[in-house]
Amino acid sequence: MSLTKFIKFTEVKEGLKKYIKKPRISLKAGILAPPLTDNSVQVGIAFDYLLRFLLKRINPRAIVGRWIAENDPPVFGTLPYLIGQDDFLEMMAQRDDLIRLTKKKADLFVKDGKLHRSLIRNCLIMSQYDLLIRTGRVYYTGGEVNEKDIRDLKKLIEIVPLKTLKAKKVCALNPTFGKASQIVRGADADIILDKCIIDIKTVRSLTFKRDYFDQLIGYYLLQNIGGIDGIKGETEIDSIGIYFSRFALMYKINISECIDVGQKDKLVKWFKKMANKYYTNRYAKLRRLKR
After folding, report:
1. DSSP one-letter string for the chain
2. What pTM does this model have?
3. What is the mean pLDDT of each run of 10 residues along the chain (291 residues)?
C-alpha cells in the first residue's frame, strides 16, 4: 500500500537506481485477453482476488493474508462527515455483508473449481472498497458492475497457466512482512511462491517498468527486515517476478542479477534509514504538532 508511495520519493527512487541494477528486459508475447472496458483499475483488483482463490485451490496449504477490503478506510474519522453519517454506516454494513458472502462463494470455488458469475461480480464490487481503503476516495457505485468486465475476468482466469503457479512448498497470498510493513506505513505483496515474490499486473502493455521493479525490490528488502507473516522460520527469497495476466506470462529475475549479496546488509540498512526519515520522523513530528 504505502510502499508504492515510499519508492516514489525522489531520494528513495534515485537511491534504488544507484544501488540496484535493473537488468535489461525484452518481453515478447501476444495479448490473449484484451481489456473490454476502460475499468482497468477495478478489473485488476478484482482479478487479484480471483487469482488468489484459484491459487488456494491448486495450493491447498497456501497461507492467506487479510483482504484489503476488510480494513478501515485511512480517513475513517472524517469520511462519515464527507458523505454523511447514515450513508457511511450503510456503505460499511454493505461492505461487511459483501465480504461474508464472497468468502462463502470463494470457499465453494476452492472446493469445486466452478467459477460462478456471482463470485466475479462480488470481486468487482470489492475492488471499489479496496480503492476506498487504499486512497480514501469513494468509488462505490451501489453494486453496479459492467457485464463486459465480468466476461473479461472470466477470460483472464481461463488462461492462467496453472503449472507455473503450483508451489512446491510455500504459497502465501497477499502476504505482509511483520513489523517491517509498518515502517513504510503498510506493504502487502500479491504472492510469494516458494522462493519468489510475485506481483500481478493486469495491464495491456507488456513492459517491466522500473516502478514495478522497485516495488518488488521493496518487498524483498522488507522481507529481509521483518520476515513473512504466517511463515515460520526464514524463507530464502532468491527471485522476484511479475505475472502479466493479459498475456498469461510469468517473468522472473534472480536477485543475484541485480543485488550484490555482499552489499545486501548495507542496502537493508539504507532502506530502513530512508523509511525512518520519510515516515517515522515525519509521523512523530506531526503528532507533536497536533498536541
Report:
1. -HHHHHTTSHHHHHHHHHH-PPPP-------SS--SSS-HHHHHHHHHHHHHHHHHHH-TT-EEPPPGGGSPPTTTTTHHHHH-HHHHHHHHHHHHHHHHHHHHHHHHHHHH----HHHHHHHHHHHHHHHHHHHS-----TT---HHHHHHHHHHHHT--GGGG--SS-EEES-B-GGGGGGGT--B-SEEETTEEEEEE--SS----HHHHHHHHHHHHHHHHH--TT--S-----EEEEEEGGGTEEEEEEGGGTS-GGGHHHHHHHHHHHHIIIIIHHHHHHHHHH-
2. 0.89
3. 85 93 92 96 95 97 90 62 69 89 97 96 92 70 85 98 95 92 87 96 95 96 91 82 98 94 90 86 42 37
